[in-house]
Amino acid sequence: MALQGIRRSIGKFIANPIVRLLEKTHISPNAVTWLGFLITVAAAVLIALGHPFAASFVVLFAGLFDMLDGALARLTNRVSRFGGVLDSTLDRASEAVIFIGIAVLYAGNQSVWGVAVSGIALITSQLVSYVRARAEAIDVNCEVGIFTRPERVVILFIGLLLSTLNFALLVALAIIAVLSFITAIQRLLCVWQKTKSS
């Protein structure tokens, strides 16, 4: 819970000033969600075309939008169930396109290991969110875990930024794959503990 509180505090510190500005533009939270997704797609294209360093900054910029849409919805009293589903759906799609872009990059370089680790990172990162979604579907709060989406974005940013160094991006993907798997297990255990008596 302490880790979750730290994440939220950092997110508010970064997002609040920008959200105040967005409020004055009358842009909708859903539009912010779509814009973040489109920026992520642009980052994936840059990666696939062999420009991971440039893409690192685009990924980081797109990650900012992930904090803004929900904060804007709460500030403007435009929170909706559809908005929540749209946000979660496009978050998953955003991560998928980035890992696919990386896999395309490695395929072009004929790196079997790169393609494999990209695929594993894609699967395990999706598992983290899937377990939480299934838990919430049965009314179990399951936001625990050492490695959630913000941490994945940061590690991915570092890996892409240092991609000119041998194995830097591959190491980042391996970290994402392993820690995401551990987080998925943590969440499964959380659900098990909360439901074993029911």
Describe the structure.
It is a single chain. The chain is mostly helical and about 200 residues long. It has a single domain, classed as Four Helix Bundle (Hemerythrin (Met), subunit A) (Up-down Bundle). About 80% of the residues lie in helices and about 0% in strands. It is built from 7 helices and no strands. It has helices at about 1-25, 30-50, 50-75, 80-110, 110-135, 150-160, 170-195. The chain starts with a helix and ends with a helix. The mean pLDDT is about 85.
What labels would you give this structure?
flat; 82% helix; 198 residues; single chain; mainly alpha; 7 helices; Four Helix Bundle (Hemerythrin (Met), subunit A)
In short:
With 198 residues, the chain is mostly helical.
CATH classification, class level = Mainly Alpha
| Percent of residues in beta strands | under 5%
Summarize model confidence as the mean pLDDT. Answer: 86
- How would a crystallographer describe the biggest sheet? none
- State the CATH topology: Four Helix Bundle (Hemerythrin (Met), subunit A)
Q: Architecture in CATH?
A: Up-down Bundle
Tell me, briefly, the overall form.
flat
Q: Which parts are unreliable, with pLDDT below 50 for 5 consecutive residues or more?
A: none
N- to C-terminal distance: 24 Å
What's the alpha carbon Rg, rounded to whole Å?
A: 17 Å
What percentage of residues falls in helices of 4 or more residues? over 70%
